[in-house]
Design a protein that fits this description.
phosphoprotein, kinase, transmembrane, ATP-binding, five-stranded antiparallel beta sheet, alpha+beta, five-stranded mixed beta sheet
Length: 434
């Protein structure tokens, strides 16, 4: 059965009391002298009854409002278990229905949030990467299972002083933290060595700066990569040795046959071919040795104009860049070898010789050297691997030219990058700190 709206009920009660009061006042005015006393008497008699009935009439609504206020306070405290059953309709019914829908939505969102938190906590706790969250007072806020195993012998780390943990850590780890920033370090001896990567990030949490420390063990992964690299090196060297030794053995046998038959006029050709293959093999071995034994750069001041002039005496290229007496501190021999390799690659790219250019520019804190060509460029797969040692797309390439250039640039504290040029060709960009 539907309830009448409160406004109609209140109006009906008010009209009833008004009618009764008017009749009572009229009757009393005829009985009392003076007659005006009838109105105060009627009001005094009916007012408590009117107040009682109005209070009874509005009691459910007042209870509903108190319940709504209490549920809002519970929502503020994170308790979303409240809901209401109101059989009335109208504005109050719509208010109760909206409130219940809000509670349902908040409960669903809270459940999803709890599930996400459980999933995230499971992932953080079970990841093999050691994770530490450190607050501004250098106390550990969070340490996952890998961090406990690495730094706390399995004990909980929350609340401990981060500096104290570092003082108990292995010396290489302490040195890595003292250097600041990201880096790699090794723990243990040569026969039982573990390699780790350290990553540190700062961010704000609740308005305070926190530090996230990540320690990832790379030993197994690097050893797998090392084995794969050695396999590739062995394949490349075996291929190159076979390409040279097979014709040398064949020509040596042919030379012996020519001597036995007395056909001396054909011996020079066979001997020249043997010499050519032997020198190619010698150069191949020398290039590998140079890459493996690259010494630390000896930085000395050089004048760019003289350096470029010396370079142009060995390989052809066009030049755009600084003139005059600009000075840089580099290892001239290593940089020259690196740029010769890059310029020769540019000539072998299919570019016209006049399109091979070298650009030299001064940046605020570094020198930038670009080697440009108008060859065929590189596809995405080659760009991703071109700087790796022993990677080559050439039939007889060693895969060391670009790798050696990268090694030299990084030994100087710089970097090297490859990108395809608009309109065709390749740009090899080397940046060296000033």
């Amino acid at each position: 059965m539907r309830r009448l709206p409160l406004s109609l009920l209140f109006g009906a009660v008010a009209l009833a009391y008004l009618a009764v009061g008017a009749a009572a006042a009229l009757w009393l005015s005829r009985q009392l002298t003076p007659p005006w006393l009838a109105l105060p008497i009627v009001i005094a008699a009916l007012a408590p009854l009117l107040f009682y009935h109005v209070s009874r009439l509005f009691a459910p609504m007042n209870s509903l409002f108190r319940a709504l206020a209490g549920s809002v306070a519970s929502y503020r405290d994170g308790d979303y278990s409240f809901s209401f059953n109101w059989s009335g309709h109208g504005d109050l019914g719509e208010l109760v229905a909206s409130h219940n829908r809000l509670g349902d939505t908040l409960r669903e969102q809270r459940l999803n949030l709890v599930q996400r938190e459980l999933l995230l906590d499971t992932m953080v706790q079970n990841t093999p990467v050691a994770m530490l969250l450190v607050d501004p007072s250098r106390r550990v806020v969070l340490g996952n299972l890998a961090a406990r195993k690495m730094l706390g012998e399995g004990r909980r780390l929350e609340g401990q002083d981060f500096g104290e943990l570092m003082r108990e850590a292995p010396a290489p780890m302490q040195e890595a933290f003292e250097r600041g920033g990201d880096g790699m370090f090794s723990v243990g001896d040569v026969e039982n060595e573990d390699i780790y990567h350290l990553s540190r990030r700062m961010f704000r949490l609740n308005g305070r700066v926190h530090e996230l420390v990540l320690l990832r063990q790379l030993t197994a992964e690097l050893r797998r990569q090392e084995v794969q690299t050695w396999k590739k090196v062995i394949r490349v060297i075996s291929h190159e040795l076979n390409n040279s030794l097979a014709p040398i053995a064949s020509l040596a046998h042919s030379g012996a046959e020519l001597l036995r038959r007395g056909q001396y006029e054909r011996l020079p050709t066979a001997l020249n071919t043997i010499e050519e293959r032997a020198r190619h093999l010698e150069g191949f071995i020398r290039d590998y040795a140079r890459f493996a034994k690259l010494p630390s750069p000896r930085l000395e001041p050089i004048e760019w104009s003289r350096f470029i002039q010396q370079l142009r005496s060995q390989v052809e290229f066009g030049y755009d860049g600084v003139q005059g007496e600009a000075i840089a501190r580099v290892d001239a021999a290593q940089l020259e070898q690196s740029l010769i390799n890059l310029l020769k690659n540019a000539h072998e790219s299919g570019s016209a010789p006049e399109e091979v250019r070298l650009q030299l520019r001064r940046t605020p804190d570094a020198w930038r050297i670009d080697v440009l060509d108008r060859g065929t460029g590189m596809n995405e797969a080659v760009l991703a691997n071109a700087l790796l040692p022993f990677y080559s797309t050439k039939r007889n390439g060693t895969g060391l030219g670009l790798a050696l250039a990268r090694e030299i640039a990084e030994a100087h504290g710089g970097r090297i990058a490859l990108l395809n040029r608009e309109g065709g060709g390749l740009c090899v960009s080397m940046v060296l700190p000033d």
